[in-house]
């Protein structure tokens, strides 16, 4: 099992010791964690996908099935930052680890007089790839399926050979019988610059730029709900160690 030193950030495979100490720093090492019931910040999800890109290359990072959850978390991070820019509220990402749907959830804590309230968005993600000529084909296919009415459809427009005509998409989607609460599309403009658009039910346009990503880095990286608590109480998990899945 791999462990991480919180001081020198050295990773080491340890056998037979559940509480190892770093051979160089002498401090107790951190055991690996998984995604179950962990809320991660958008900034962490973005950095994690960047690490995968740098380690395995863009082709593997965007095609390998082993990185599907990381890609979905990165995609969800763009919506989270757009919502934060629109409303000023911070959102965390929870990756679904048991059921097939939704792909991810957006979570936030609303502090009310009677106690904390958990706000949740259920996210269904789809990519618009280069093998599909029209983004509406992707949206129509998703809308033809049965989804719960509280789901949000999030389209990652990865077809860089095409320009998204948002006015047309907004017009065309009104003709569909959509099961989704909302439909969002986002496109890459240039490094640290994305356009995120709600195309249904009411249009909303958000431009994400470098200052938005820099501001997001100050958000608490990890939260987890205290399951034994009778109230919606949460713990800042501090530094977690989540090894990158092997790419081979």
Described by its quaternary structure, the protein is single chain
- What is the N-to-C order of secondary-structure elements (H for helix, E for strand)? EEEHHHEEEHEHEEEHEE
Counted beta strands: 12
Strand order of the largest sheet: 4-5-6-7-8-9-10
Specify the biggest β-sheet: 7 strands, mixed
| Structure class | alpha+beta
Radius of gyration: 20 Å
Helical residues, percent: 25-40%
User: What would you call the shape?
Assistant: globular
The proportion of residues in beta strands is 25-35%
Indicate the mean pLDDT: 92
Instruction: List the domain count as a whole number.
Output: 2
Q: Tally the helices: what do you get?
A: 6
Low-confidence stretches: none
Give the terminus-to-terminus CA distance: 18 Å
Walk me through what this model shows.
The protein is of the alpha+beta class. It has two domains: 32 residues, no CATH class; 203 residues, no CATH class. It has six helices and twelve strands. The protein has a seven-stranded mixed beta sheet, sandwiched between helices. It has a three-stranded antiparallel beta sheet with strand order 3-11-12. The two termini are 18 Å apart. The relative contact order is 0.16.
SSE topology sketch:
Blueprint: E1 2-4, E2 11-13, E3 39-40, H1 42-56, H2 58-63, H3 68-87, E4 92-95, E5 104-112, E6 115-128, H4 135-143, E7 151-157, H5 166-173, E8 182-190, E9 193-200, E10 204-208, H6 210-216, E11 222-225, E12 234-236
Parallel strand pairs: 6-7, 7-8
Antiparallel strand pairs: 1-2, 3-11, 4-5, 5-6, 8-9, 9-10, 11-12
């Amino acid at each position: 099992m791999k462990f991480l030193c919180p001081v020198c950030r050295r990773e080491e495979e340890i056998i037979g010791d559940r509480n190892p100490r770093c051979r160089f720093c002498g401090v107790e090492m951190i055991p690996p964690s998984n995604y179950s019931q962990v809320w991660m910040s958008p900034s962490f999800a973005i950095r994690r996908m960047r690490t995968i890109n740098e380690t395995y290359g863009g082709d593997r990072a965007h095609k390998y099935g082993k990185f599907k959850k990381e890609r979905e978390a990165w995609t969800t991070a763009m919506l989270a930052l757009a919502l934060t820019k629109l409303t000023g509220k911070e959102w965390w990402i929870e990756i679904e680890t048991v059921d097939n749907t939704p792909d991810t959830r957006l979570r936030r804590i609303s502090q009310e007089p009677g106690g904390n309230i958990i706000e949740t968005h259920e996210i269904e993600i789809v990519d618009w790839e280069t093998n599909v000529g029209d983004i509406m084909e992707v949206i129509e296919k998703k809308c033809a399926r049965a989804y719960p009415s509280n789901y949000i459809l999030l389209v990652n427009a990865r077809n860089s050979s095409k320009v998204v005509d948002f006015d047309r998409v907004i017009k065309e989607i009104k003709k569909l019988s959509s099961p989704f609460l909302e439909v969002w599309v986002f496109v890459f403009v240039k490094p640290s610059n994305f356009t995120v658009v709600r195309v249904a039910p009411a249009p909303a346009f958000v431009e994400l730029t470098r200052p938005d990503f820099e501001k997001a880095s100050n958000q608490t990286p990890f939260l987890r709900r205290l399951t034994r608590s009778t109230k919606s109480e949460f713990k800042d998990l501090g530094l977690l160690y989540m090894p990158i899945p092997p790419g081979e």
